[in-house]
């Protein structure tokens, strides 16, 4: 399976997917950044398996909007695709919009999407603070944990 890493800070263009692919994108805002991306991931071929996963961390004043469109073209029977977007919010003054959509032009496919927008879990933060970490150190640990990929066992 081909792996692709997308730079979510740059405008993204439509992509033709013709073979199995694992697409990842990470964005870590520094504050006062404005990202607005709308693009298509077009599945064009039989039996394509794709997993698309974007992770986003927003700080104060960041504005982030992403509109990924998963398209399954006519003739792409057996395609299996899933898009997941996760956003972690730091602070209280930012704007996050996640608008995933599906355009299915073929029967007998499996396609889905999901999105979450959340803040740092206060129980996790409290646990790290109770173990002697400063608030900044604890936040760094939690951000790293959020951005890490789970390891297969």
Strand and helix map with partners:
Elements lengths: L1 E6 L7 E3 L3 E8 L5 E10 L5 E10 L4 E10 L7 E10 L5 E4 L2 E4 L5 E10 L2 H9 L4 H13 L6
Parallel strand pairs: 1-3, 2-4, 3-5, 4-6, 5-7, 6-8, 6-9, 7-10
Helix pairs in contact: 1-2
Strand runs, count: 10
The total domain count is 2
User: Which residues sit in consecutive blocks of at least 5 with pLDDT less than 50?
Assistant: none
H/I helix tally:
2
Broad structural category: mainly beta
How is the largest sheet built, in terms of strand order? Answer: 1-3-5-7-10
Alpha-carbon distance between the two ends? 19 Å
Radius of gyration: 17 Å
Q: What is the 3D form?
A: elongated
How is the main sheet built? 5 strands, parallel
Helix content: 10-25%
Approximately how much beta-strand content do the residues carry?
over 45%
Mean pLDDT across every amino acid position: 92
The ordered H/E elements are: EEEEEEEEEEHH
Q: Which oligomeric form is depicted? A: single chain
């Amino acid at each position: 399976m081909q792996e692709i890493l997308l730079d979510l800070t740059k405008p993204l263009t439509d992509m033709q997917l013709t073979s199995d692919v694992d697409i990842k994108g990470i964005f870590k805002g520094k504050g006062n950044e404005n990202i607005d991306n709308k693009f298509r991931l077009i599945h064009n071929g039989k039996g394509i398996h794709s997993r698309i996963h974007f992770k986003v961390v927003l700080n104060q004043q960041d504005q982030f909007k992403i509109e990924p469109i998963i398209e399954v073209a006519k003739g792409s029977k057996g395609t299996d695709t899933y898009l997941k977007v996760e956003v972690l919010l730091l602070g209280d003054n930012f704007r996050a919009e996640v608008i995933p959509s599906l355009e299915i032009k073929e029967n007998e496919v499996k396609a889905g999407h999901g999105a979450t927008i959340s803040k740092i879990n206060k129980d996790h933060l409290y646990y790290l603070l109770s173990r002697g970490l400063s608030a900044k150190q604890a936040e760094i640990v939690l951000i790293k944990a959020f951005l890490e990929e789970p390891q297969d066992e």
